[in-house]
Amino acid sequence: VQLQASGGGLVQPGGSLRLSCAASGSIFGFNVMGWYRQAPGKQRELVAGVASGGITNYADSVKGRFTISRDSAKNTAYLQMNSLKPEDTAIYYCRLYGGGYDSWGQGTQVTVSS
User: Fold this and answer.
1) pLDDT for residue 27 is more than 90
2) Positive or negative CA dihedral for 45, 37, 24, 30?
3) Coil, helix or strand for 10?
4) Could you give the strand order of the β-sheet that contains 17-23, starting from the edge strand earlier in sequence?
5) CA 23 to CA 20: how far, in whole Å?
6) What are the pLDDT digits (tens) for 37-70?
7) Taking the mean position of all CA atoms in its chain, how far away is CA 17?
8) I want to staple 66 with a disulfide (CB 3.0 to 4.6 A). Which of 39, 43, 50, 62 is the partner?
9) What is the C-alpha R_g of the chain?
10) Which of 104, 108, 95, 107 is nearest to 31 (CA)?
């Protein structure tokens, strides 16, 4: 399965962006689609994940601001990011894992700056 991430860009503090991650091919059984990010000089960290059954989890730093969702019919996950802060600046990666899957998409740059 290949993943294609899109939707990054430059946004002012307080603004919003929506990231998309489309998976090619069919996905079966239990799995998780997640978004990770890596800022310069920092380790990659989990931002949010959504399981095939719909359960979600978020990093504490984004709770209440980011919302992850998925459209199983389209094999696509979304990350709605609101109230963006400069510290959200990073390369964002999507990942499909669990149930025998472990694929990463290419990164998409998110820059929050005035």
Assistant:
1) no
2) positive
3) strand
4) 3-6, 17-23, 76-81, 66-71
5) 10
6) 999 999 999 999 999 999 999 999 999 999 999 9
7) 11
8) 62
9) 13
10) 95
Judge residue 14's burial from the number of C-beta atoms within 10 Å of its C-beta, 0-12 exposed, 13-18 middle, 19 or more buried: exposed
pLDDT of 96-111, one tens digit each? 999 899 999 999 999 9
Residues 19-41, mean pLDDT to the nearest whole number: 94
Average predicted confidence (pLDDT) for the chain: 96
Q: In this structure, are residues 110 and 65 in contact, taking their beta carbons and an 8 Å threshold?
A: no
Task: Say which amino acid occupies 20.
Answer: S
pLDDT at residue 25 above 90?
Answer: no
The 10 Å Cβ neighbour count of residue 7 is 16
Nearest to 55 by CA among 94, 98, 107, 22: 98
Distance, in Å, from the CA atom of 105 to the CA atom of 76, rounded to the nearest integer, reads 12
Distances (CA, A) of 19 to 7, 28, 41, 82, 93: 4, 23, 23, 11, 10
CB 22 within 8 A of CB 75: yes
pLDDT band at 89 (very low <50, low <70, confident <90, very high): very high
